[in-house]
């Protein structure tokens, strides 16, 4: 399972860095913090969907494209893998390369948000949302010093969002017209 991810890193001479990241685990004390970030991101997303029809439409269009053919178990993988991979890239690689402090977290959050505009279904509100959650994951990484925490929080936030969409139980109510 790691081979498709690891092979390019090994080819590019980054095997030591990859081994370091794969050896990082999530500690018990940080699990509560990770869960708090997941709960905060999920609640904020739900509220934003309830208040901003454009954000809800954009989120639903993205979810429909990615999740329509998925079973609930598939949603776990479709949500978790990209979320974790984005954190390894943005918070685990780019953030420390820019500046291993709040400046790196700010720059990576902004870049993360702007990249979400490349999808034509996304709106400026979606980009602002991605910037905000990117900042939250960056703050989590800086606080714990462990990219695995940010990866776990992002993966679980995506899974909560995807399952909410797929199962319909936690979707935001219709936005008033």
From TrEMBL:
GO terms for biological process: CAAX-box protein maturation. It comes from the Eukaryota. GO terms for molecular function: endopeptidase activity. Residues 73-160 form the CAAX prenyl protease 2/Lysostaphin resistance protein A-like domain. InterPro entries: Rce1/LyrA-like_dom. Pfam families: Rce1-like. This is CAAX prenyl protease 2/Lysostaphin resistance protein A-like domain-containing protein.
């Amino acid at each position: 399972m790691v081979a498709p991810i690891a092979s390019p890193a090994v080819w590019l001479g980054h095997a030591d860095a990859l081994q370091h990241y794969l050896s990082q685990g999530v500690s018990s004390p940080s699990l509560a913090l990770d869960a708090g970030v997941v709960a905060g991101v999920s609640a904020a997303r739900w509220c934003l969907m309830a208040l901003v029809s454009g954000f809800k439409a954009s989120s639903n269009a993205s979810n429909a494209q990615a999740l329509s053919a998925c079973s609930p178990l598939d949603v776990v993988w479709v949500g978790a893998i990209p979320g974790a991979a984005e954190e390894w890239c943005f918070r685990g690689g780019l953030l420390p390369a820019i500046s291993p402090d709040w400046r790196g977290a700010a720059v990576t959050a902004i870049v993360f948000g702007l990249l979400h505009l490349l999808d034509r279904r996304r709106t400026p509100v979606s980009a602002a949302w991605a910037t905000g959650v990117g900042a939250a994951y960056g703050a989590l990484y800086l606080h714990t010093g462990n990219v695995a925490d940010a990866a776990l929080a992002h993966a679980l936030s995506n899974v909560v969002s995807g399952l909410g969409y797929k199962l319909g139980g936690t979707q935001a109510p219709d936005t008033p017209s």
